[in-house]
Amino acid sequence: MGEPVSYQSDMWRDRIDARKWVFGRADFAIAVLVLEAGLIVASAIATGMLYHLWGYGDYGDVSNFTVVGVVTALMFTVPIVFQDAYKFQDFQEGKRSAARTFLMWNYAFLCLAFIGLLTKTTGMFSRGWLVAFYMVGLVGVMVFDEAVARFLGMAMARGRIASRRIMLVGADEEIKRMTQAFETPQAGCRVVGVALLERPGDDLDATLAEAIDKARAIGVDDVIILTDWSRGDLIATIADKFTVLPVSIHLGASAVIGRFSDARVAHFGTASALSLTTPPLTHLQAVTKRAFDLVVASLALVLLAPLLIGVAVAIKRDSAGPVFFRQRRRRYNLREFRIWKFRTMTTLDDGDVIAQAQSGDVRVTRIGEFLRRSNIDELPQLFNVIMGEMSLVGPRPHAVAHDRIFETRIEKYRRRLNVRPGITGWAQVNGLRGPTETEGAMRERVEHDLYYIDNWSIALDLYVMAATVFSRKAFKNAL
Fold first, then answer.
1. At CA 202, angle to CA 199 and CA 207, rounded to 5?
2. Are residues 11 and 46 in the same domain?
3. Which domain, by its residues, includes 180?
4. Whole-model pTM above 0.70?
């Protein structure tokens, strides 16, 4: 029958690890925190000294630069520490995104300005230096985070990051399946012990007692219970037994639950349920995004009014037909609306079959070619934003005829309209605009749209809007 509890000896691996430098997980987080804070302080000092040397012929008061750097570093790093976001998983899984860094950096500078107002010290510092520090520091922390992510990938592949030590408790087949999932270096975990349950003649209490002794002896970090979720009493018994260890106890995801990365426990009064998904935006987030859209769109229409009038005149003089092109599109929750665009073609197709514009398309007018390449043809959609049919940033809406084609071929295609469509979007600033001639091209666009939905923030919207204007990728494939 064999031993009910087994574990994989790490003595040979430990001997190898002893000969090379290995980062513990806690050490990694502390090192990244210290280095990032040091980088911010160094950026403040360097920009301050160079700015004063250039503007005033001396290095200025280094102590003042240091104080500002330290305060900024604290305002930037402390919230991240409280969010427990210096873990290596955050870098490994891409959670330390540029948009998140941008948001935290602006938060740090807002705190710095508030402190300056309270202490009446704003007049002590050059505005030019603060602008330089803001720009250099922002680029610095973004580059640093990217460098850490790349270093982490190489370090894990070479065994330089200490792996989490896992014990699996359950049936033999489930243990084998889960063990295979931990075989790659990128998993950052090693199965160092297993406890096989429910074999004929085994005593459950004795098996669990032996497993607990082994887990304590070999230094387990996590225990994963792998058994049928319908057997609540068994799961509760196993979990209760292992609470005598200072470890994290997890319930292995079933085949269904494993498909949902954000599954969590929800409470409804005294009842509990496992939430597989949630709406893409909370009510507060939706209100915030809508308010942002209204303010920016209204301001943009006022500022761009002369340009819009000039374009309208140019279109009328260039070719016969209306100034605007209206076409049926789908918005939030698959509701239809008519999009506003400057007319750029000689046709106004809006039927069940619509031919996408191609390079050198003879239907595109002379002024239309310029408008499409410069994205100016999309500006009338500011009216759609004000009417609540669109957002400034979101998945780009396609013609209804094209939606009907792709929603039958791409499983999660409709999910992209769980938020309002946008004038610009994450896919567009990553070079995925223009005609979708293949199903693969549309799949890639949908993947980017879903990434945006799952990672939305005002900071990400600001980043996308800025990239729409200044990034070359945003103009790629424009027709």
1. 105
2. no
3. 5-20+162-275
4. no
